[in-house]
């Protein structure tokens, strides 16, 4: 077995695929109304599937609010420059930053993702 992709639920598959393609410096490999895909330069794919009842997740979690059940971790060489790039792509910096070598950001649908320097 080989893990090939992760699928993220969203109200806007095209918007998220375009966002992550800009972030990763690639182009979407599929752009449909209900499903879109970005294949990362290393080969793993991130799929975006329309969820008709999607509600923006909250991170860190709060009682009674939709929980962010997954997030993407993206390794970077220069954390400051990568964070600036992500913000220029449309990400939002999270108010909570739990680790010095990690920056938590939100994509346009509110899913958290982490940039990290090992």
From TrEMBL:
- Write down the PROSITE patterns for this protein, in alphabetical order: VOC
**Entry's Gene3D superfamilies?**
2,3-Dihydroxybiphenyl 1,2-Dioxygenase, domain 1 (3.10.180.10)
- Database matches in Pfam families: Glyoxalase_6 (PF18029)
Start and end of every VOC domain?
Answer: 2-118
Where does the sequence pass through the membrane?
A: none
Superkingdom, according to UniProt? Answer: Bacteria
Listed CDD domains? VOC
State what protein this is by name. Answer: VOC domain-containing protein
The record lists the organism as: Lentzea xinjiangensis
